[in-house]
Write a structure and sequence with these properties.
The chain is mainly beta. The protein has four domains: 3-41 and 612-713, Jelly Rolls (Sandwich); 52-90 and 299-597, YVTN repeat-like/Quinoprotein amine dehydrogenase (Methylamine Dehydrogenase, Chain H), CATH 2.130.10; 97-182, Elongation Factor Tu (Ef-tu), domain 3 (Beta Barrel); 192-298, no CATH class. The chain contains two helices and 64 strands. The chain has an eight-stranded mixed sheet with strand order 16-17-13-12-18-14-15-51. Strands 2, 3, 55, 58, 59, 60 and 62 form a seven-stranded mixed sheet that branches. Strands 6, 7, 49, 50, 52, 53 and 54 form a seven-stranded mixed sheet that branches. Strand 4 and strand 5 (37-40) form a beta hairpin. The radius of gyration is 29 Å and the shape is globular.
């Protein structure tokens, strides 16, 4: 019998049944298509032996004027620099807590730090300075100042505990002194519910609103500098304890006295900031009353990172903006922390630098600079040209403001060739520099096309691509249009046993560009997952799609570096950078990889783990023309055709008699194929067959060609 060739088109098609997908690939993992042929993706190697505390949310690479290359990585806990194979901690510090004292217990490594109204929480990071160690405990100042510390527990609002490297030699109370320098945290590790539907007691309650009676400073104190309470115009309707929202900041309290909320704790969530007298105070109680959309949930922490010349610009989502200057690098800058950009707004969704005209755009920011309580998530403010510290419009500068009107919040933005595309939760806007007196023009270019998350948007080759807020993919290339996708149901639908994207965790979605293979990959959490554990890849040259389980939280393209760099988060990993005394795995850890390197997963010791790549086709019947699969076929042999094969590959012929049957492997399979395999004898009989190619060992690589088989009709009865 002559060999029959089975033509299989590139890309996955998951919109049809396996039997309906004849001539198509339907499933796979860790594969891509090159020149129309499926192949295993490249491997990855761990770049640094250390793992970073927290989950990486953004990554950015740039170079200084001397050509030195840097990568900045922002997690929910720290901001770090990667430079020449090592990590450096540049996390900005919050307001220092002076006048702390220590309690120790003989033979115990647990030390209590005493500070009234400290506002720290378990898992927070900080450093010590100006330390006089507790008397007789056996500790030196260096035992406290040499490391970063993690808050282990918070017994009350006036104390917290840490774990020392060794046990104390005596019991003392209120001894010694120190200054605590808290790290500024970017926020929650993952999506959490704040106020809103279902967060209170079943069946009761309502929205409660009030206003501040007095200035609430950007410090640990309450109104009037009391340190323990916040005065409202009225506390009528407020429960005796709970959490309020002022601006973008969440503040807990433990009691009410007259119009005072007492026992306050700042920095519960969001970024601590100053709030003017009269600022709105919100409290939501009860299951049966849904809150406003803007206060319903607390999104995962995030950063926006960009460069203004040599400077790194870093904005915490709904928080402050910082800068870090690599000038005089290595000896000085790498040991210097990022600092607040003077004059910039204190609460913004994100920031970016408009390259050609050099303005710093603050998106979803304050209508009154310095008052986080005036944050408007549809409001945009931009600096004076070449001056990132001046945001007040005057007749002699180019600073200014405008507000978008379609949507409830700005989700993200990206720089195009000569424009900035801003996406809300509903619409798309184009911002272009036009010069004085208006500085920028703005026009709406799309509706019902909101983005799912801040980092789900990418510009490449004259077009912007993004994942939609309610499903689907979009592209802007002068007009906004839906992007056809043959895996759309798999990615976005949560029905039956299909687990599409977890929309609640949409802010975790991250799109990475790999121009080496003309790919855009969206990493996303599937339904029920708290962190990214799936991906979907679009080849923008061929228009084909693949899906997989590569789990990455950030990704930067090969540009300054020869290959892409990416981060992976593990929720149970114990972080090793920065060096944290008393560290736990409560915050998880991030691993840093170089991708498209070799064929395997490789750690810093050189140990390899195989990448379990596979691809599977839809069913093919090989029936005579004019028939519809009613005949059985008998496959006696097939001829393997691999464009590339290193090591070996496993080829499986999967069989079924009816579309509803569970597919079963050919009795003699799976078949091991090497570069010298000429033919493979089979014993396969069924109405329908499909093809699966896989590898299971290290040092294996393959690119499949065309499937040819010796097939003959074998009757209509089973």
């Amino acid at each position: 019998m002559p060999l029959t060739k089975v033509q299989i088109a590139p890309g996955f098609n998951k919109q049809v049944t396996a039997t309906g997908a004849e001539g198509k690939w339907t499933d796979g993992d860790f594969v891509r298509f090159r020149y129309g042929l499926p192949e295993k993706i490249g491997g990855w190697e761990q770049l640094v032996n250390s793992t970073i505390v927290g989950a990486a949310r953004e990554q950015f690479v740039w170079a200084d004027l001397d050509g030195r290359r840097y990568a900045a990585i922002g997690t929910n806990k720290v901001l770090i620099i990667y430079y020449e194979g090592a990590f450096y901690d540049i996390t900005p510090l919050d307001t220092a807590l002076t006048g702390c004292t220590f309690d120790t217990v003989n033979t115990s490594a647990t030390v209590t730090v005493n500070k009234a109204a400290h506002t720290l929480q378990a898992g927070d990071l900080f450093t010590f300075t100006s330390v006089t160690p507790p008397s007789g405990a056996g500790y030196t100042a260096g035992n406290f100042t040499s490391n970063t510390f993690e808050v282990v527990s918070v017994p009350d609002s006036d104390s917290f505990t840490i774990t020392m490297a060794s046990a104390a030699g005596t019991t003392v109370n209120g001894s010694g002194s120190a200054t605590v320098n808290p790290y500024i945290s970017a926020g929650a590790l993952g999506f959490t519910y704040g106020f809103g539907w279902g967060t209170g007691l079943w069946g009761g309650g309502q929205q409660v609103f009030g206003t501040l009676n007095g200035l609430l400073q950007d410090d640990t104190a309450g109104t009037g500098g009391s340190g323990t309470s916040i005065t409202l115009s009225s506390t009528t309707g407020f429960p005796t304890s709970g959490t309020i929202k002022v601006g973008a900041e969440f503040i807990s309290y433990t009691g009410i006295s007259s119009n005072d909320l007492t026992g306050i704790t700042r920095d519960v969530a969001g970024t601590r900031s100053a709030h003017a007298s009269g600022a709105g105070v919100e409290y939501y109680t009860g299951w049966g009353q849904a809150s406003l959309a803007s206060t319903l949930t607390i999104d995962p922490a995030s950063w926006s990172l960009d460069n203004f010349g040599e400077k790194l610009i870093a904005t915490i989502k709904n928080g402050q903006t910082f800068e870090w200057n690599p000038i005089n690098s290595n000896a000085n800058a790498l040991s210097t922390r990022a600092t607040v950009v003077s004059g910039a707004p204190t609460s913004s969704v994100m920031s970016l630098v408009s390259d050609r005209d050099r303005h710093l755009l603050m998106l979803g920011t304050e209508s009154t600079i310095g008052n986080a309580g005036t944050q408007d998530k549809m409001f945009i403010r931009f600096s004076d040209q070449e001056n990132i510290s001046d945001y007040t419009p005057t007749s002699v500068n180019t600073a200014g403001t405008f507000r978008l009107d379609s949507g409830t919040k700005i989700v993200g933005a990206v720089k195009g060739k000569d424009y900035t595309l801003v996406l809300t939760d509903n619409s798309a806007y184009v911002i272009q520099f036009v010069g004085p007196p208006f500085t920028f023009s703005i026009r709406q270019v799309g509706s019902n096309c909101g983005a799912i998350g801040q980092h789900s948007i990418k510009y490449i080759n004259g077009a912007v691509y993004w994942m939609g807020e309610s499903g689907g993919f979009f592209v802007y290339d002068g007009t906004v249009k839906s992007l056809p996708c043959q895996v759309e149901d798999f990615v976005f639908t949560n029905k039956g046993d299909n687990l599409g994207v977890n929309y609640s965790n949409g802010e975790s979605v991250y799109v990475g560009l790999n121009h080496l293979y003309e790919e855009l990959t969206w990493f996303y959490p599937k339904s029920g997952s708290s962190f990214n554990d799936r991906c979907v890849t679009y080849n923008f040259q061929s228009g084909t799609w693949t899906t997989g389980s590569l789990a990455r939280t950030t990704w930067v393209d090969a540009n300054l570096y020869d290959v892409p760099y990416a981060t992976e988060f593990t929720s149970t990993g114990l972080p090793t950078f920065p060096l944290i005394q008393g560290v736990t795995n409560a915050n998880g850890s991030t691993i840093y990889y170089a991708h498209e390197v070799g064929t395997d997963q490789v750690d810093t010791t050189g140990a390899k783990t195989a990448i379990p790549a596979f691809i599977e086709s839809g069913d093919f019947s090989l029936n005579p023309e004019g028939t519809s699969g009613e005949f059985f076929m008998s496959m006696r042999r097939f001829v393997p055709d691999f464009k590339l094969i290193q090591g070996d590959a496993q080829v499986t012929i999967l069989l079924r008699d009816f579309p509803s049957d569970t597919e079963a492997s050919s009795p003699l399979g799976p078949f091991t194929v090497t570069g010298t395999t000429q033919k493979v004898d089979t014993r396969a009989r069924a109405r329908f067959a499909s093809l699966k190619i896989a590898n299971t060992s290290t040092d294996q690589n393959w690119r499949f060609g065309t499937f040819r088989a010796d097939v003959q009709l074998d009757g209509m009865r089973g």
